[in-house]
């Protein structure tokens, strides 16, 4: 009787873990697709290589959703081969997800360098180029300035030539009017000091955090499935 209760409890836990895994996989898949499609603002300046880790994690999210169904079957049928296959596939997708996280954070540095290069040599209000338009739109709408902070602009060709900050860094009122543009572009006052790197953090760290949580849930699911295997 006690063995039946323990097996029933294990099945309940495994069903719960697989439901949670299906949800986590759906979240990863949705986030990955959203990030890939919504390449707006400064994110549009990054090449596909810097998103390689995110793409790998997105694929792993889709695989988790499929494997969750295998987990439901393994629990319901009590099939040892299905359990072994489930644990093997889950460990493989855990490895894939870890690789995706490593790739993602390795290329975070490259993505940062790409954005830094875009404002150091690519920002030129007089030319009306793509880099300029994207930096101005991001700084104005995001109420930020530079990548890490506003003094980043001092290393740019724009600042070295004109000894001023971009007007898009300036604080505005509710009507969109400058509070004090002259003081702002000289860096004295009414200038946003927070950097715009949240563009990268939003893409990289949110999906990375979800991936890490999913890995922990997967490891627990595999451990309980192995335990369930021993009680069959």
Automatic annotation (TrEMBL):
Transmembrane domains' residue ranges: 12-37, 49-76, 83-107, 204-229
Bilayer topology annotation: Multi-pass membrane protein
Protein's UniProt keywords contain Protease: no
Keywords assigned by UniProt, alphabetized: Membrane, Transmembrane, Transmembrane helix
Cellular location(s): Membrane
The UniProt record lists the keyword Mitochondrion: no
Family per record: Belongs to the tetraspanin (TM4SF) family.
Protein name per its UniProtKB record: Tetraspanin
The species this protein was found in: Clavelina lepadiformis
């Amino acid at each position: 009787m006690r063995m039946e209760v323990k097996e029933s409890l294990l099945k309940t836990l495994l069903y719960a873990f697989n439901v949670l895994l299906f949800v986590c996989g759906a979240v990863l898949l949705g986030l990955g697709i959203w990030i890939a499609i919504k390449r707006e603002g400064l994110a549009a300046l990054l090449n596909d290589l810097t998103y390689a880790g995110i793409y790998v994690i997105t694929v792993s999210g889709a695989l988790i959703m499929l494997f969750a169904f295998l987990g439901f079957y393994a629990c319901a049928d009590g099939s040892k081969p299905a359990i072994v296959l489930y644990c093997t596939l889950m460990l493989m997708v855990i490895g894939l997800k870890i690789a995706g996280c490593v790739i993602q954070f390795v290329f975070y540095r490259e993505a940062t360098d790409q954005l830094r290069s875009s404002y150091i040599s690519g920002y030129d209000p007089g030319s009306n180029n793509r880099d300029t338009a994207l930096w101005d739109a991001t700084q104005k709408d995001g109420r930020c300035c530079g990548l890490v902070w506003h003094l980043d602009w001092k290393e740019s060709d724009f600042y070295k030539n004109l000894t001023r900050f971009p007007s898009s860094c300036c604080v505005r009122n509710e009507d969109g009017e400058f509070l004090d543009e002259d003081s702002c572009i000289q860096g004295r006052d009414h200038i946003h000091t927070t950097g715009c790197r949240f563009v990268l953090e939003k893409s990289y760290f949110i999906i990375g955090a979800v991936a890490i949580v999913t890995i922990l849930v997967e490891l627990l699911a595999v451990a309980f499935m192995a335990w369930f295997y021993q009680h069959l």
